[in-house]
Amino acid sequence: MMGVQLHGSTGGCAVRDWRQAVARGLHGRCPHCGEGRLFRAFLKPVDRCEACGEDLHHQRADDLPPYIVITIVGHVVVGGLLLAEKYGDWPMWWHMALWPALTIILSFALMQPVKGGVV
After folding, report:
1. Positive or negative torsion for Cα 81, 83, 85, 91
2. What are the φ and ψ backbone dihedral angles of 5, each rounded to 5 degrees?
């Protein structure tokens, strides 16, 4: 089994399943225990888990979450736009209203879970 090596407040090293850690992060929970909150603000992670004391200040997601969100949203929006153009007869104002709004909503909805999964 592939795992993640831990270096936290416990002082020792342990191995944790990376899939479980990513799933907990996607839900906005501590990757170590799954109990404490991962974010103190929309995209600002906490320094330390309030439940287990795991140090999280060293976790940096940098630019990866926006790249992942752009890829997901781009595929959904462009795919939807192409399907609407091929099978629908929508007026231009409908496209101008729907696709930018959908892009913004999906981007904000996915950013925090994706960042949690990366952290």
Report:
1. negative
2. -80, 130
